[in-house]
Amino acid sequence: PSLYLGSISFIIGLSSPGNPKDDFQEELVIRPLHSGDIYASFQFRTVWETDFMRGNKVSHYRLFPKSLGQVISKFSVRELHISFTQGYWRTMQWGQPFQPSPPGAELWVWFQDSVTDVDGTWKELTNVLSGIFCASLNFIDSTNTVQPSASFKPLGIGNETDHRFLRYATLPREIVCTENLTPWKKLLPCGSKAGLAVLLKSEKLFHSSFHSQAVHIRPVCQDWQCKTTSWELRQTLNVVFDLHNSAQGKREWSLFKMFSRTLTEACPLASSSKIYIDITDNPQGEQFEVSPATPLLSQAVVLGDRRTFSVYDLTQQITFGTVRSLNLLIRWKSSEGDMLRPLLHAERYVAGYGLQTGEIHTLMYNNHPYRSFPVLLLDSVPWYLRLYIHTLTVTSKGKDNKPSYIHYQPSKDRLRPHLLEMLVQLPPNSVTEVTVQFERALLKWTEYTPDPNHGFYVGSSVISSLVPSIVAMDTNSTRERPLFSSFFPCKEESSYFVRVYTEPLLVNLPTPDFSMPYNVICLTCTVVAVGYGSLYNLLTRSFQIEEPSPGLAKRIANIIRKMRGVPPL
Amino acid sequence: IYLFTYFFFLLLYIAFMLFIVFDNAGQFFSSGHTNNWAVLVCTSRFWFNYRHVANTLSVYRSVKRLGIPDSHIVLMLADDMACNHRNPKPATVFSHKNMELNVYGDDVEVDYRGYEVTVENFLRVLTGRLPPSTPRSKRLLSDDRSNILIYLTGHGGNGFLKFQDSEEISNVELADAFEQMWQKRRYNELLFIIDTCQGASMYERFYSPNLMALASSQVGEDSLSHQPDLAIGVHLMDRYTFYLLEFLEDIHPASKTNMNDLFKVCPKSQCVSTPGHRTDLFLRDPGSVLITDFFGSVRKVEITMETINLTDPINPVNGELQIRKYSYVDQLPVSEIIHQKPKQKDWHPPDGFILGLWTLILLVFFKLYGMKHLKHIF
Questions:
Q1: CA A284 to chain centre
Q2: What integer pLDDT is reported at residue B325 of this predicted model?
Q3: How far lies A84's CA from each of A146, A188, B59, B90, B135, in Å?
Q4: Are A459 and A380 within 8 A, CB to CB?
Q5: In B184-238, which ranges are continuous DSSP H helix?
Q6: Which residues participate directly in catalysis (chain B) (predicted)?
Q7: Mean pLDDT of the residues in chain B
Q8: Crossing angle of helices A178-186/A118-133, nearest 10°?
Q9: Is B339 among the catalytic positions?
Q10: Catalytic annotation, pick one of B33, B52, B72, B197
Q11: Residue of chain A whose alpha carbon sits nearest to that of B136
């Protein structure tokens, strides 16, 4: 039945000549990790050969969601990347993710050259996106937006890159829950009713160590000549399930255990629907066993390494077997072998004591034995941590390492955050430490959040770098490749682009005691009452002698004496 | 005499027919509303106030089940309980102990969350005075034929309701907000339910017509919570809303239960506090008001036999083919970055302070050394 639907939609597509073509692909990559956890990455990609920027309005939406199409045309967006993440990606234990994202919400947008007021358009865009994704993105304003000067180059095609049209903002405090997943799922052509999106059940997805959902919109080449562009929408969802939370400690994973669902069909509107399982570390099947077995194998170069995958094609009816449902089972046999160490990873922490000063330390590790590579570090610090840039030091292996490019924009109180961008060359097999001292500012009492003792968040640092790769990367961008390997464009074969995010920081600012006004009033009133009252009494009180009233016998005697006319006692 | 009796019976007959007609017409226009809205607010923050979020979500669930769509519901939750790190079962909010009923569900859209739930935002939503870039899902787009349900829960006192442990809304402000709504014709009828301690004080000051109010406790009484769940570790629901939820679970979109049954929910024996209600500002008799007038949604469907002409889809004009070739941008062009010229900042004329300083220096200089030095300079 899906084949018939597919052919009918194809015929319909052919018969209406004015209609631009659109295409939808979905895939799921499952990568078992060495610690026993499992990493699942969903990608849904819609490509549409249309032009939102031309004068004529686009009115007939088919696979591309209308809400996002209207956002693109109304705000003249060239590229939009938004991600919502819960948890922190542990690079040393899990390797590199396919699409990196920082904890909280992150939004970066390239606008078209025709936009005159970028800041005003940015503010309206964040408000509209907060309505679409049910997130409080309206808190993005000039105090947490920066304009990077060298990082975040466009991921789509384009010829000019004037950084005046780029805006970047993070909200590290933003939570992700079912209310963000619901509108995200509604953007998919099949919704959550058919295909791989059936597996997206919130009760299992949020009971994980790491959960990240993102939407990426960019223009891509239509064909190898690359004279016309089409718009690509990628919706990605990365989740890492914990061995002890979700699998009860047993090293045995299945689709049902991970998602509490099995697959019964592919999305009928999808041109390709595949599941990839990473079996590179398991060439002879000695580490783990995958069932049901599949004859399809595929090799892809991703993240600088050539990996082998078992492929399950959901558009073929044979994948589902006689039971008409697919429940992949991965059972571990032995737990030996260690992971390839990632070549680049970073940490960040706050040092110092007290509530006045502190120091931010960022550590970048280069684990390559003999190659050094350049790294672009982007730091955006809120205005209430006043950085002392004259104390900025960059040291590698104990020696001073002068960056070849520094761009620093100081903050303005309540208007702009600090922006620090540096291009540092990391020597091989070393740790590079970037330190800068800061002082904490006093906020006005209305600027504190309702729970100020939790602390204030500082967004993650972004480290973008071209890391040397072990195998030659594929620079031909138009060949049919699985979606996870075509996310970052590749220009040269010897290195691949990677972005690493550090932890966000949580700093305590000097917090006033909000019960103070009440206590002061009580104390002052007490002091005034006691002090003034005593003084008043001292000044105006006079003492009079009063005789005590006589007893009963004496009173009777006095009455009798009065009657007798004799003076009383 | 016969003529007289004949006329008498004729008049009686006409009066009878008119009465029937008017009664039917009265029934047809009895509800008077064409759309339904709901504003559900939870005002408490922190994990131990789990029950307030569960209260709001259970009313949200009932309202959605009875037909009001998400686009007509403004849901404001001051804190996140479902994905809170202290929740042993993430993405769930339970209302009954032993985790029987998950009121959070799989299809929930929260419009205002976290720090956005403030008194200012709540009043702006009610009165419609929102900044122009506010998205539609965050607006209350009601008109004069809308029935609105407003549900508030949290911690309150005599005459106020606490928002997020940092500010309060008073009953006077709330009454004035409803009067503004009435002046701007933003509602047809409004049902106000509040589940806080001393909740009856919040509706004491109402003075606009067509308002009906229910509260979980009288002035001087505390609203109590229902039952704790030992696995989650907090109280799950408040008593009044728990019994309200049980009552609403029996309602379906076609049921004919009226407001008098709603007033009987949670008597003192179950609730420990005395629920109160106020109907003097309401024009209709509460016995004739259906529960679904506020909790359900009216969809008046008009069947038409007219034909509507659809315009042809706009064919995109194929413009001239771009001759230049596009390519992907280099993600980290090291040499370009190193040789990047610093951005030329726009030139501003010198600030007043700098001008004054230089004038002072020049004056002092020329005073000291005399004017004859001027000719050396000019």
A1: 37
A2: 76
A3: 19, 17, 28, 17, 19
A4: yes
A5: none
A6: 155, 197 (nucleophile)
A7: 86
A8: 100
A9: no
A10: B197
A11: A131
| Cα of B44 to nearest chain A Cα, Å | 10
Interface contact A445, partner B, CB < 8 A? no
All residues of chain B having their beta carbon less than 8 Å from the beta carbon of residue A134 are 109-111, 113, 137
Q: What is the DSSP string of A36-101?
A: S-EEEEEEEEEEE---SSSSSPP---SSS-HHHHHHHHHHTEEEEEEEEEES---HHHH---SS--
Q: Which residues of A336-360 are buried (b: 16+ CB within 10 A; e: fewer)?
A: eeeeeebbbbbbbeeeeeeeeebeb
Judge residue B295's burial from the number of C-beta atoms within 10 Å of its C-beta, 0-12 exposed, 13-18 middle, 19 or more buried. buried
A226 touches chain B (CB under 8 A): yes
- H helices present in chain B, as ranges: 2-28, 50-65, 119-127, 171-183, 239-249, 259-263, 268-271, 292-295, 334-338, 352-369, 374-377
Q: Mark which residues 140-169 of B lie under 8 Å from A by CB.
A: 164-166
* Whole-angstrom distance, CA of residue A34 vs CA of residue A32: 7
Among A235, A193, A198, A232, CA closest to A214: A235
* pLDDT attached to residue B11: 77
Binding-face residues of A in 450-479 toward B, CB within 8 A:
450-451, 464-466, 477
Q: How far apart are the first and last CA of chain B?
A: 127
Residues 509-528 of A with CB under 8 A from B: 514
Q: What is the largest CA-CA distance in chain A?
A: 140
Q: Assign A537 to helix, strand or coil.
A: helix
- For residues A339 and A93, what is the distance between their CA atoms, to the nearest angstrom? 8
Residue A19, pLDDT score: 60
Summarised one tens digit per residue, pLDDT across range A260-309 is 989 998 999 999 999 999 988 877 777 888 888 888 888 888 888 888 99
Please state, as a whole number, how many other Cβ atoms lie within 10 Å of the Cβ of residue A371.
15
User: How many CB atoms are located within 10 Å of the residue A321 CB?
Assistant: 11
Q: Are B188 and B32 a contacting pair, CB within 8 Å?
A: yes
Residue B333, preceding bond cis, omega within 30 degrees? no
Would you state the pLDDT for residue B153?
95
Q: What residue type is B194 in one-letter code? A: I
CB A361 within 8 A of CB A435: yes
Contact residues on chain B for A54, CB-CB shorter than 8 A: 316-317, 319
Under 8 Å between Cβ of A32 and A16: no
Task: Let me know: does B331 contact A153? Beta carbons within 8 Å.
Answer: yes
The DSSP letter of residue B104 is S
ipTM of the complex: 0.85
> Is the whole-model pTM more than 0.90?
no
Task: Note the pLDDT of residue A4.
Answer: 47
| A311 CB within 8 Å of a chain B CB | no
Closest to A215 (Cα-Cα) out of A191, A184, A194, A238: A184
pLDDT at position A140 is 94
Helix B171-183 vs helix B119-127: crossing angle, to nearest 10: 20
Nearest to B331 among A158, A179, A497 (CB): A497
- What is the rounded distance in angstroms from the CA atom of residue A536 to the CA atom of residue B361? 60
In sequence order, what are the beta bridge partners of B40? Answer: B75, B151
User: Is the model's pLDDT at B26 over the cut of 80?
Assistant: no
Q: Tell me which residue of A471, A157, A489 sits closest to A300, measured CA to CA.
A: A471
Q: Residue A521 has which token pair?
A: 């009033």
Token reading at A287:
């580490």
pLDDT score, position B16 = 64
CB A180 within 8 A of CB A165: no
* pLDDT tens-digit readout, A395-412: 999 899 999 999 999 999
Distance CA B331, CA B147 (A): 55
Q: Please state, in angstroms and rounded to a whole number, the distance separating the CA atoms of residues A289 and A291.
A: 7
